[in-house]
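Running this now, will post back.
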Amino acid sequence: MTNKTATDDIPKDKRILKAAEKVFSRKGYHQATLDEIIQIADTGKGTVYKYFKNKENLFYTLVQGKNKRLMKALDAAVGKETTFEGQFQAYVYTFLHFLYTNDILWSVILFELLNQQAGWRLLWNQEKGEHVLDMRWGRKPTEEEVAVKRRYAQLIGGEVRLLREILQQAMDAGYIKECQDNLTLMSQNFYFSIFMLYNQGAINRDNIHKVVAGMVDRFLYGHIRK
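Update: finished.
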């Protein structure tokens, strides 16, 4: 008779994902290894390949699942509000509360997988409605490298699009000034600004209400003050 452990009741794919979250959150994407994930999950390499094919797809599956839960929470929180102020605050609060427990994984995406240190980047093209390759220096990336970076840009893009919709509705209603430039790019920059403020410790559990109130104040009143 074999001894049954607590992990035996957890499906293998869920066990692997839990182990992957521990490793990726501790080591980032590039330094994490499948061997360490396999050891923590107490499974075989063949099982990981069966469910996830490779390390990149394992990481993507992990963050995609979390992103779905984040989007559901954002949609629910924003949907309860009828004013720009309420919607904007609901968006920022929900995003920040998500970062309290997932900031490392989102740092991995934004710093490691979407970084521009390789000499090339993906830029949002408003006319094409997609991210396009922009070479800056060095070796041109392979199609696979571009595809990997694009899928993470698209994943984060859902969160950016919701923020864009909030701003667009407020502009259409004449509640805030019209954006003279690319609204998608502006929304993306604001999204990253929220993340960076949190990542750098400028927003925390103690000052969150004060900081978000300041953001709203700038949107609603900053452009008319002398």
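Helices lie at 12-31, 34-41, 45-52, 55-79, 84-113, 143-172, 183-199, 208-221. More later if anyone needs it.
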